[in-house]
Design goal:
- With 130 residues, this protein is mainly alpha-helical.
- It has five helices and no strands.
- The protein has helices at residues 2-16, 19-26, 42-46, 58-100, 108-129.
- α1 (2-16) packs antiparallel against α4, α1 runs parallel beside α5 (108-129) and α4 runs antiparallel to α5.
- It is rod-shaped and about 70 Å long.
């Protein structure tokens, strides 16, 4: 139990200190040329739609697409940081609960926090590597 707690704690520290942001920023660059990103690009699929009034001006359309991609990347990074903060909070609460016990048996609340830590860490890892 303590080994699992330590793993979760160090993973939270790694993410909060920016270790996961380098991975998150790696895939966030626009990949297309002047025609925009390709259709199979996940950043383009998740980007907001572009104003149809700019179809006559390719330069303005390209700038709007780039801005939409930047906004999507910032939103993704914000969600990663929010999850990392939640993970750090949960690990701190679990640490306090484990240190407060004198036996090797843990309360149901501590076990629920451990499950939450595992779930948040899994989601965070999946989101950071996307």
């Amino acid at each position: 139990m303590r080994k699992l707690w330590m793993t979760a704690f160090f993973f939270a520290i790694f993410i909060v200190t920016g270790g996961g942001l380098a991975v998150a920023q790696k895939g966030g660059k626009p990949t297309g040329g002047d025609n925009g990103p390709p259709a199979h690009d996940p950043v383009a699929r998740n980007s907001p739609t572009v104003n149809l009034g700019t179809l006559g001006d390719p330069e303005k359309m390209r700038r709007e697409i780039e801005q939409a991609q930047k906004d999507a990347l910032v939103d993704r990074q914000h969600r990663i940081l929010k999850d990392a903060d939640r993970l750090l909070k949960l690990t701190a609460e679990l640490k306090a609960g484990v240190e407060a016990t004198t036996t090797e048996q843990y309360s149901a609340a501590d076990l629920r926090k451990l499950d939450d830590i595992e779930r948040v860490a899994h989601d965070l890892k999946k989101r950071a590597l996307k």
